[in-house]
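Bumping with the actual sequence this time:
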Amino acid sequence: DDSGICVNALHGLPGVISARFSGFPKSDERNNRALLEAMKPHTDRRAHYYCVLVLMNSAGDPQPLIAEGEWHGEIAHQERGEGGFGYDPLFWLPELGKMSAELTHDEKHAISHRGRAMKVLLEKLKS
């Protein structure tokens, strides 16, 4: 699994460096503050989480199964919610009127980038 959040106004950042966007040592709290600071001059708040899952039978597997999932939302102006981790307190879901951090575990799994990627991977395993 490799996942990250991509923000349109930041040309896809934090992307692959999502976990260490604010440097080391890694900190969700500092990453969220850094993202809010980077977003100050921007009105385009669109963002998406992106996940890639790779399943290999062995280290030398020539044909691993690869599944991707995306979850679209917006970056809020302030944190809200107690659940989840990472950028979840900033990830606004307009269609639900909630932050990702306000979803239950089951709600989040059903619609998140990881949940979507897992559904794709399971379908590939069935075929």
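The tokens above came from a reply further down the thread. The chain has a mean pLDDT of 97.
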